[in-house]
Structure formats: structure tokens, C-alpha cells
Design a protein that fits this description.
Helix content: 10-25%
Structural class: alpha+beta
Pfam family, one: DUF7133
GO molecular function: electron transfer activity; heme binding; metal ion binding
InterPro entries: 6-blade_b-propeller_TolB-like, ARM-like, ARM-type_fold, Cyt_c-like_dom, Cyt_c-like_dom_sf, DUF7133, FA58C, Galactose-bd-like_sf
Protein name: Sorbosone dehydrogenase
Organism: Lacihabitans soyangensis
Strand content: 15-25%
CATH topology of the largest domain: Neuraminidase
Length: 931
Amino acid sequence: MKEILRKSRKGFSLKHAFLVSIVGIALSSFVITNTPNGFSEIGIKADTLPKVKIPEGVDPNSDDWRGIDLEPKPPVLPLSVAEEQRQFLLPPGYKIEPVLTEPAIQQPGAIAFDGNGRMYVLELRSYMLDADSKNELEPTSRISRWEDKNNDGVYETGTTFIDNLIFPRFVLPYGKDCILTMESDADNVYKYTDTNGDGKADKKELFTTKYGRSGNVEHQQAFMYYGMDNWLYSTVNAFRVRATPNGVIREKTGFNRAQWGVTHDDDGKLWFQGGASGLPSHFQFPIHYGNFEVPNEFAKGFDVPWGAAVKIADMQGGMDEIRQPDGSLNRVTGSAGNDVYRGDRLPSNLRGQYFYGEPVARIVRQINPVVTEGLTTLHNVFQDQKSEFLRSTDPLFRPVDMATAPDGTMYIVDMYHGIIQEGQWTQKGTYLRTKIEQYQLDKVVGLGRIWRITHEGKERDKTQPKMLNESAAALVKHLEHPNGWRRDAAQQLLVLKKDLSVVPTLKTMAASSKNELARIHAIWTLEGLGALKTDLAKILLKDVNPRIRIQALRAAETLYKAGAKELEADYVAAMKDANTDVVVQAMLSAKVLKISNLEEGVKSAMFNNKAAGVKLIGEQIITPPKPRNNGPFGGVELSKEQKESVDRGMVIYSELCSQCHGNNGMGAPGGNGKLMAPALAGSQRVQAHPEYAIKVVLHGMEGNIEGKNYAGGLMAPMKGHDDQWVADVVSYIRNGLSNDASIISAKQVEKIRAKTANQSVLYKYDQLIKSTPKEIQVSDGLKITASHTSSTRIGGNVSPQSAFTYEGWSTGKKQEKGMWYQVELPKAMNISELQFNSAAIRRFGPRNGTTPPPPPQVTQTFPRKYTVEASVDGNTWENAAQGLTGNEGDNTVPLSTPKVKYLRIKLEEGLEQETENIPWTMKQVKIFGLQ
């Protein structure tokens, strides 16, 4: 490894030979010479330069193409690590050095560190291996783990922790020798553990489901991130999840509109990084308080990048996006990776500064957040100098992630890649494709470098962490460390250990430590252990330090949700605090907790405090802004009727069900270590087929559930209430208690009530589960065929069976009468329900110099009119449901078939009147039945 990082002074080195071989260009095209400084250089023979072709149908004199240099050019060649190092431009006193490079790693997309300081690398080895993103979804990516065992600053020892992954979305260390990750076009997050200490995961467990989305790899969820509040967040997804003793629960949040990057500051506020916008996407307030429209978040000129001259002008937006004559980017167009620097081995004026990468511009930006009257404005620190924190003249420098490191410095992840836009934006005929071919950027693949930023006079911290092997008592001491990474790691490990012996120490630290940051982490560690009690919260809510009062308001939300309604007076009082930031926080907490007389309290706060932030939040709590078009990052909203049903169900649950199941659905304590009733939040039973929950509410249940006994003993029947009442409460339980399942209608309840009219006694769990339809999985032996099948995107492969996954299936052509999708069941069974999702296709055009990008073109791909047919033999078909109309998002078709072996969805009508080629698409097909 060290040999790779050293400069080559021996003419044409093995390193150069490796680089030439991976770019795939014949050596006969090169002239190799030695320069006076001892480095070898690679030149190109003039007669081998490729001719640049203008795409067919393009007028070279049009506004979009006028002035473009289309002369043949030498290909952009990768530099050695040492040579690239010399192309960086940094402020005075700063240095950059490699810590891990190819060939040990390839195409790194993100990094994360475990409690022992070992670095996990997300290697996206299938990303843009050619301009058409061919084989992008092949299982060739991996997550590797690296150590610096001899403590010389270079990660020389590594293992492949998980191999053969399909474009993994993130890597999150989660305790000892364990990580969380998921693959593209998937819906499940898995926990991988190395149980025998060989550096390779050998145990795979389901962590949570309903987490993903399909589509372009740049538009899927990414960066699962452990927040200071002990919740897990990610880009794209408008929810957060959290592991509990009774399963993984979730809560809805605002839309973060991010793509590749999540981080947090010393106060635990999350910062999300946009993608195509080139800008941070959400940073004003913690995301779980929802979305607020804040004007002028960015200082004037913030969207203008100041990269070094890269000459090649390979920007997606064309000439409008290029600063001449240096060929650099003139307006941010893409961003990836972010970090609020919280270390202790770089100058103190960097602490709390926000850094993010702009890989199209080949820069890392340093951003100064300025808070005035409760609102944040972002300033580019180097804007006046027309510069950036880190620039490079090497066109292959692609900063895609950054992180405060265990050694107190900051690491930069450089994919070092030819193409940094996904295949959807590099199609033939585009300006970008022309530039890619002109400089042969598609040939530069399989590389990657990770760099350390240091500063003269400040040596990196050489004390290697060993937290995975430490006791809980030892971990508590790390909460006082000046490096934020160490505090975060210690907190996470303490929460995952669940060792309550340290609670007294944590309480003392939270209440009276002289270290302000240690107090903050102690508060949240107590919250994560379930050991933050109302008495301590009340003390902290009156602390002399406003920063602590803010943390107490946030942490006490957990207590309030669990039933500590006596804290309501404290939230009301905090809205009258003398400190503006405390008032802002109190209003946000009051909003999310839905405290009584919220509007009255907000108006009082606005009357007493004239700060701009108080006014903005207050007005938008009272009159919420209309939701923006969320582009590829939004979800399908509930209808007005569905929202009203869930709201009614919440009232019923609060008045009747919460006494046993708990205010937050986690189960109320019943004594002797038992719960009064099972947890409903995060329950897979509750979120599976709706018949289970409806039957329980109608007819009740008694006895143990999956081997567990509960102090309450039984669930009383509620069949005396009408169908809408049952639908309301079940809808709230399935959709409002950290769950994410379909809304129930009164008609569904009516059918199940009629079907179970003879149920005269309480259900036993075993009896109930046998009589409830189960989802039939592909692994059970389903066979799927279709009249038409096509890939849903560039670089993707699809089969009819893929509709059962999150990837999805498409006809690939305009909907026509008679098109069908067929499922052969493993054996004849009664089918009770069919579900599928038809998502809209959103197409993004060029930005044409605008900020933000123009809204996408939306194409609805649901089946317009269809029939569901059933068959015993696959030859003779009977209608199981007909005259059906599809809709965007989830589609549910209740069925009641005799025992059948085949099920078929068939279009009754085509789209002959439509001029656009609108296909029929589906994903996540689910069939429920009884054998």
C-alpha cells in the first residue's frame, strides 16, 4: 500500500501501466517520456486522436452549440496519486495527503467509521462504466473495511466486509463488527455482522422494510444516518426509523429533498445535501418538524462556484453552464457528500463550518452558517476571493463525500472518475455525450482515492480509538472529548449496549458538567436508554444555558409522546422565553406534539417576540404553506377523506386504546416486566393484510401472542361500533403509529364483518393467524409471465418477476387493449387481495442556466382500465374483478376467489387517443391468499 502512495521516479512505472490498462486504450497510441523532475508523462500520438462527431439532427450554429470546440483532443488520462496531489489548491497552511487509494479500492462513494476507527468504504464498482451506464445494476459492488494497524496514517489492512452487492445505497456502522446497508431497487435494510472476527460479514438479518424506492440510481434513498436524537434518517425518505425492543418504529418527517449527503452539527441539527440543485436542501430546523418556506436562505452569489481551470467544459447544461475561457462551471449543478466539521485537529475557525462537494465543478466548498433572529443564511467563505476551500485542476477529481475523522482531521472521498452524471443524462445526441467522447472520459473507471486534510502546526490525533472493546463506564468519558466524531460514536455504542449502570453518571453529567457538549450528549444518551425522566427534564428546561434548554425541549418530546402530558405547561412557558432560539424551538416542539391551544400559544409568542424566525414559523404553523411539488422525492399524499379518517382514529385510540397499548403504540407497562398489551408501532402483524387488525378489533383476542403473555390478558371485542368507527381506528393504527400501511375503508370492514358473523368468542392468536390471508412470496414458487416486458430505464434489466421486487416491471410501450401480466401460484388457493404500485415517471430536462432546475415532466403509468381474471388450469378464465381503474401509487383490489392456480391482470382498454407513448408499469406486486 505504501508503495502505491509514493512518487514514482523510475520512468514508466507499474502504476502508470496499471492506469493505462484500466482505461483500456492501446499502448500503441501513447508516447512515453521522462520529464526533468523524474516523473513519467504519457502523450498521445497525433494520428490516433478520435474525430468528434456532431450528433445527428444538431445544428452547430444553434444557440446551444455555437462556439463549442469540437476539435479532436487527447484523452483525459488519470494521474498517479502523487501527481494528482500536486493539482490541489488549498488555503495557506492546509495540506492534503492520501490515506487509501486504488487498486485497493475502486469507485468509492462514501465512508463511515466504527468505534475502533476502522473505515468502511462504499465501493460503487458498477457506476458509469461506460456512457450508457451498462451493467450498472450487476452485483459487483462491495463494502470494504480498512485499518491503519501501524498508525502511520495510511489504511494498509483491509477486508471485503460484504461483496456482490447491487449498487448499495449506504453503509452505517451499527455497534460491534456490524453495519446496516441496502441495495438499489430494494425495499429492505439488512444488518450484517462479522461473528467470527475475520473481517467479513457472515450473518445477515432483516433490520427494517418499506424503506426503498426504485428508479434512477441518483434518485433513490441514500446515506442512512444515526442522528444525535437516536433516530435513523436518510435522504429522499420523508420518515425516520428507530430500533426498539419491540421492533423498528418510524415517524413521518418533512421532505428533505436531498440526494447524497446527511450530517449533523454539535446541536444535533441535521443538514441534508441536495443533488441536481447543487445546494444544501434542508438545514433550517430539524427535519421532523416538517417543512417551512424560508426566503433568502442563501447569500447573494452563493450558487456561483469558483473552481480551477479544467478546460474540458464537460458540463451537462452545455455552454450556458460554462465559464470561458477556463472551461469551469459557472453555476452549481450537482452536489454530493457533506460534513459539519466537528474535529479538533484543524484550525478552530473551521468548527461548525459546513463543507460539501461539487463534483461537476471539482471543488469542496466551505460554508459559513449565519443565524440571525432564528433563521440561518449560508455564505460561501471564499466567494469574495472568487475561490473555494479545495479546488483541483485535475478533471478527474470527483469529491463525493467527506467526514470528520477519528483522528480529528477531515477526510475527502474522491471517486476519481471520468463521468459523474448517470446514464439518463449522457445519452447519445446530448452535449455532454459529445464531450465525453471527445475526451474519452468513459474510459476512466475503476479508480478512487481518499484524502486527509491537515494544517501545519496541528498533528493528527494518533490515539487510535478502541471503543468497541470498552465498558459502558469508559465510553461515558468519551462524551467529553473535543472531537465530535468520538462523542457521537460513544453515544451510539452506549445506547446500543443498553447498560443502565451508567445512568447515574449520565444524569450528573447532563445536569452539571462544565463541558457544554458533554451535557448535550449525556441528555441524548439518557433519552436513547429510556432513562430520561420527567423530573430531570423539568430541571433542564429551566437551565440557565439556553442551548441546554433547547436540547431539553427536543429530548422531552419523547416523554410527552409516551404520556407525560404535564410537560405541556413547560412547552407553553418556553414560547415566552427571553431567548429567541428557545422560543423558535418551543414553537416547533409544540407543533409536532400538537399541544392544546397551539394557535393561541403561537400568537402569544409572536406578540412577545418580533424576531423574523418567530414570525415566520408562527405564521406557517397557523397557515401552513401549500406543499411544493416534491419531484422525485415526494410521496403520494392521503386524500382529504383518508386524512379525516386517520384523525378520527387518533381520537379513538387516545381515548380508548392508549391505556393498554401506550400513547405512542409501544405498549403500556403492566408490571413484572410485562406490557399491558402488545406494541402496535412497528408491528409487522398490524401492517400485513388488513384482515388481521380488523378481525381483532371486531371480535377481540385472548392468550399469548407469538409466545408472549401480556398483563392485560385480553383484547375486548368492539363489534358494537359501526364500520366507519372500526375503519378509522384501524387506519390510525396502520398509518399513524410509526406504521406505514394502507388506509382501511368502511366497505372493507363491512365485508369482513359479514364473513366473520359466526365468530362468537374471542380469537386465539394461532387460530386468527391461520385464518388471515398471507402474502405469497416469489420464494414460495411463483411463476410470472407477461405479454410485453421491457427495461424500465437505462442500465437496468427487468423481467415480469421483478414487479414483485421494488425494481418493477414495464410493458415498455404504449398501453394496448389485451396486454396482460400473469402469475402462476405454487398450488391452488383462495385469493383474497391483489396489491401493486404504479409510480409516475418523472423526466428531467436540461437546466438551461436556471436555479432551481425546472420541474420534471410527469407521466402516469398506471393501468387505465383493467380486469383481474382467475383460472384453475391457465386456459379457462373467469373474471375475479372487472371494470377497475388504476391510480398513481398503491392500488388494492379485494378479491374472493375459489381455489385457483392462476391470476392475470389484463387491460380492458388501450391508450389509442394518447399521443405520448405511455407504458403500463408496476412494482411491489403482492398477492394474499389462503391455501
